[in-house]
Amino acid sequence: MRSGRAQRLEQPEGSLLGLSADADYGDATTTLKSGDALLLYTDGLIEQRNTPIDDCLQTLVDIASRPVADVDEFADLLATETASDTSDDACLLVVTFK
Questions:
Q1: Where residue 58 sits, what CATH number does that domain have?
Q2: N-term to C-term CA, the chain
Q3: Model-level pTM?
Q4: Nearest-angstrom CA–CA distance, 41 and 27
């Protein structure tokens, strides 16, 4: 999130994460500025059985664009307002840059 607006970062080619002898892993670079927040999360946070993943991601962007006072409130907002229905485990890491 930058200046109160969340956006998805460019996804590199290949697998993002995982272990496979045949996997190809790409990379991407972005510049983070003071005040930015970076979200790292698993699909268990947002995935819904009958909703395309791109729609789930857009919902996360919309939620992450809501104004909050601090990083703790931001993490709480994301954890409580996302609507996964897969019973999958979820992980969320919010990193802020000062």
A1: 3.60.40.10
A2: 13
A3: 0.83
A4: 18
